[in-house]
Amino acid sequence: DLFIGYSYQKINLIEQKSWKKTEIIYDDVYNLAQRSGIVMVRILASWFKATLLKDKGLYTEAYDLIISTTSAIKRSGMINQILTLVTLILTINIVSKIEEKQIEIPGLIYKVFYLGHKYHLEEYYKYIEDERLLDEDYLRELQESFNISDEELQSDSDMEESVEEQSEQPAEPQE
After folding, report:
1. Radius of gyration of the chain measured on its C-alpha atoms
2. Do residues 4 and 12 make contact, with C-beta atoms less than 8 angstroms apart?
């Protein structure tokens, strides 16, 4: 159902028709998953809804939802690098449209590059809509304009990697 909703979303984007059917599909899937306790489907429905809000030009709402979705992914304890990567890319695509949130871009790009390299998922870079963000010189200028040091970017990545490694280790048996 989510992919059917996404198909309607892309058709509506091109033909400038109503988003109602797409919204109903995403909301129905979300509500059913929530009632059924299916966490991953609920997270995916939220992710798709954030793409819809972005396509509708509701960037602040899309940002709030994708941040909530990111938190839900972390709270769920599920380790899914592809979902993490596409969520980061969607966040970049949303943040690039909100001037006051653009300070987050260098850190997000660094995480995408890091995950893409670590898990050999480089083909996902083509989904970053603002191609300037893939230019190292532009990214360096952006980073400098926000006074973000390489050490801060590395520190953020190291902290996330540490949390990721801890969650990948099996739990200690309790006696």
Report:
1. 17
2. no
Among 45, 42, 63, 46, residue whose Cα is nearest residue 54: 63
The whole-model pTM stands at 0.75
- pLDDT, tens digit (0-9, with 9 covering 90-100), for 39-70: 999 999 999 999 999 999 999 999 999 999 99
Token code pair at residue 72:
């839900």
**Token code pair at residue 155:** 């520190």
Q: How far apart are CA 167 and CA 71, in angstroms?
A: 15
* Closest among 87, 19, 96 to 53, alpha carbons compared: 19
What whole-number distance in Å separates Cα of residue 47 and Cα of residue 70? 9
DSSP string, 39-75: HHHHHHHHHHHHHHHHHTT-HHHHHHHHHHHHHHHHH
Q: Is 25 left (phi over 0), alpha (psi -120 to 50) or beta?
A: alpha
First and final C-alpha spacing in the chain: 44
The structure tokens 């893409």 sit at 116
